User: Fold this.
Amino acid sequence: MEFVIDDLRIYYEVFGKGFPIIMIHGFGPDHRILKGCMEPIFKYRKGYIRVYFDLPGMGRTKSVNWIQNADDMLEIILKFIQKIIPNQKFLIIGESYGAYLARGLIEKRIDDISGLCFISPVIIPDKSIRTLPEFRPIISDSTFLSSLSAQDIKEFEEMHVIQTKKVWKRYKDEVDSGLKLADGKFLTKFYDKGYSFTFDPKLTNQKFDKPSLFIMGRQDNVVGYHDAYQILEKFPRTSFVILDKAAHDVQIEQEAILNTAINEWVDRVEDSI
Assistant:
């Protein structure tokens, strides 16, 4: 399906019925990065409508020239939500840069958001000043790796501490499939000129006092985990989960624990709404 704003056509998919969950993927991939890890969970959790969409310049949503920065991206998401689930309360699941955009949503519509989950969240937009942990392989299947091309090995080893066929397949299906569709020229310009909001999404005068969940990889060399402590006190009802044997694709490398944590978060949401 598509939602049109001027000359921008946003591709989206909807599954299920019930209380809305807005899924916001990260920078570069498309909606499949969240669909791949969330649909196996919500297949067994009835009562939720899951809304996945591709951000501009990613997946099947083409870029347009008037999108200059994160503020523009946020306005697009606000209009999209109002169109798809008008005047409704909703949950957010944000992955990586999607979690950063979700923090902007909190600033704009805090009363309408009934709970949120952040997976490998971008906390500090400027990568050069992020606190990043040591990155090193923990499980490496050398026999499987030898079957890949040199380029594939490099790509896989730079982002994953569990280097097995199972992780590789999910990475290719759910992450790399979106990366291959991304508009590289648009994303490079956006990252250089407009990746950050023009405001600081710190919930300066308030807190998000609803069920929340942060899930991060202990070996995440893209966004890390330590910087999330800076905003933790703004989320007094959050569970803060840091998983060993997991880098940025924590949803793939630690699937079982992530599933348990998501289900526990949904239980807390159901106690509150």
